[in-house]
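Hi all, long-time lurker, first post. I run a small reading group and we've been trying to get comfortable going from sequence to structure in the token notation. Rather than ask abstract questions, I figured I'd post a concrete chain and ask someone more experienced to write out its structure so we can walk through it together at our next meeting. Sequence below, copied exactly:
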Amino acid sequence: MAVLQQQKCPCCGGNVEFDTASQNLKCPYCDTEFDLDALRETEAEQENTAPDTVTWESENTVWDDTEKDEIRTYVCNSCGGEIVADSTTGATSCPYCDSPVVLKEQFENDLRPQLVIPFQVDKKTAKEALKKHIASKKFVPAVFKDENHLDEIKGVYVPYWLFSGTADASAHYKATKTRLWSDTKFNYTETSYFDVFRSGTIPFENVPVDGSQKADDALMESVEPFDITQAVDFRTEYLAGFLAERYDVSAEQSQQRANERVKQSIVDALGDTVNGYGSVIPESTGMQIADGAYKYALYPVWLLNTTWNNQKYTFAMNGQTGKFVGDLPVDKKAVWKRIAMLTPIIGAVAYAACWLWQML
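-- Answer (accepted) --
Happy to help. Here is the structure in token form:
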């Protein structure tokens, strides 16, 4: 005897049954009825949602011999990171862990950056912004304010992979509408459930993914956005006075994060077209990338790493826009002292309020 695959209710997920009275399919759990043809079309839409198909092509080049003579590679003794700087740079320290870096004799033939966004915020501005940021925090330990190493803030060109292409996307959403009414006896709530499908073609350009293991992804994404329209063709002269980290995350390793960022943007864009519902929940999405390509770029970031109570704190500033992000320690003793000072005041106010209430 053949066993038929049980159809599921799109609203609650229960098994639907054929209802002889309405001659339609009906869910015994939520009492929703479905036209047979409509339910079949819904299932076909879901089955036809294509899996993600993404292929990326490189647009990058390699360094020429003249450029190799103009740059040097330095290796961090502590974290092993490699920093690229112009040939005039002397001894320096790692922008990520503050350990000394030493000159490496040979520069390996990596991909050459195609674009660079030059620094537009100078070191003085970056230092003043950090001072202002720290001063605005009431419970930052005083010793931290005294000992933070503002002079050690470093301008670093952080490696980024930029992904561009055209996405053919589709998305399936579950949506609801709720209607409320009442009579003399009862309050009523009616919830209607909808399957919503959207599809379209969405071009995207220069979706950034940082190519550094040492640069925290959350920190680097927080310091965004960068204005790519101000990027210029890379020249080694832009490295003068600054450091540039060599990428240690390849474009291939960065593709998963790029796919996630592109897909999330697509889900948001298609979701913005689903209007008029009380709630909208994404169920499934499909994405196919056409003409996908990536290139290597350097983005400007001011970095400061400092340590307090054996814990490292990292601050970053967008070297193009001045956007500042970072975490700060909290002096717990100062917090409790402030609470202790406020407690008698709060108690007095509460007592006065109670007294006035009794007098009224």
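A couple of things your group might point at:
The CA atoms of residues 16 and 27 lie 4 Å apart.
The first strand starts at residue 17 and ends at 19.
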